């Protein structure tokens, strides 16, 4: 435990929690570090049970209430994590009074892709004196290391596919669209939009079943850090489900931006990938920037 | 009829035909011009009935046979048109002797996206003394004009969405992936990979039904010319089916690269769009290049 962590012992940490396994992992890590996690469930996170953690559920119409809630508990630091599949539609809801007060600020924010939205949200917190910390400053050992993590490493054709996918993923990331791309050595197969990685992988599986991907056309998934992204939130991530989905889509393996992406429950992820004969590899910034 | 056309009267034209309505429109136009169309059906085109035109069906394993077939008929000019949804998997087929002879050349070609594939195929024809002509040099009045074609024109928010979609479509086109993008004024919704425009529009419809697209989030489709593309083949195109699919996905309208995209059966397309209250607009090169 570093000195910074020690100083945080007993301090409250707000977890602005969407869906998926990540927010719970963050809460567990914060508690293990001696911090006091308080979960503010939003979006997909509202459907989860947050026991044993203290929590509140905030529908989009009550977004503005987050600040009095945090203030009442003396919370000065928050971490954003988890998936948000449905964006707020403020034009067709009845906001709480606090939310209504913030509505002009909120509506300006909703412009743009996920990354610009998250940066705007972070700004709203910071202007009110609440610090926004990165997931990996709470949840240690979750950043993807460089190099192959699995028994199987990419072969020459896989390397070509990884380079092609990484390059395309960087480009769509620059447009603040998705983070994920599936490619073969010959061509890009699928680009992630708002549907998310899981839906994209299901699409790849369907294309393969329909004969639209050759039997001898090895495909890989790459999830890339967006070049202009704030490293504190929405880093690309994979977990055990991603391995299962990628395997079902017939992929040979997965590449990630080393140091700027997350592997959730890495031990289980590598075990699952090894069992499926797949590779998982962290690649350097320079390798990603290269056109294939 | 221009002088060039007159000189072509009585001359044979090879139509290398994939799926969809385009190859038949090309054959009709060629015949109306006094040329003698001969259809070489490949890929998705093999499933069509080509009566009343002279035709031959070539599975991928017999690709190499196209040259003796054209030579026997004295055909010195071909036009490529129609969709190819399944790419050849030469590694797992038994090729005809002629195809086998060409296999090294063919396998080099299969590398890359659709555009690099088509350029390579055109090169193979040209090296054998066969000219490759553009669809719109046979089928006149099919190029998208600049400006709005429909009663409804895009409003200010639609314009924003069109700019966002056009910019993203140009970027993925540069990567030689898809040509089509769906966007709202706020963000990019979907990017076309190998699944094609129809499957992408079905995905957008499903995202809307699932509440992943806001009720007050107007979306548009843009199909863009790929910056590095050869204008002779695979220009982005729409037809009546595209209008129906876009309407089913809840889109407000469609934008296309003026002068570098095709509207098949334009009269019927505009009629169908007007009935659905949608816009169809051709936009200039400069408008596309701008970031939104």
From TrEMBL, chains A, B:
Q: Indicate the segments forming the LpxI C-terminal domain, all copies.
A: 145-281
Organism domain of life = Bacteria
The record's InterPro entries line, in alphabetical order, gives: LpxI, LpxI_C, LpxI_C_sf, LpxI_N
Which residue range or ranges hold the LpxI N-terminal domain? Answer: 13-141
Q: Which Pfam families match?
A: LpxI_C, LpxI_N
From the Swiss-Prot or TrEMBL record, give the protein name. DUF1009 domain-containing protein
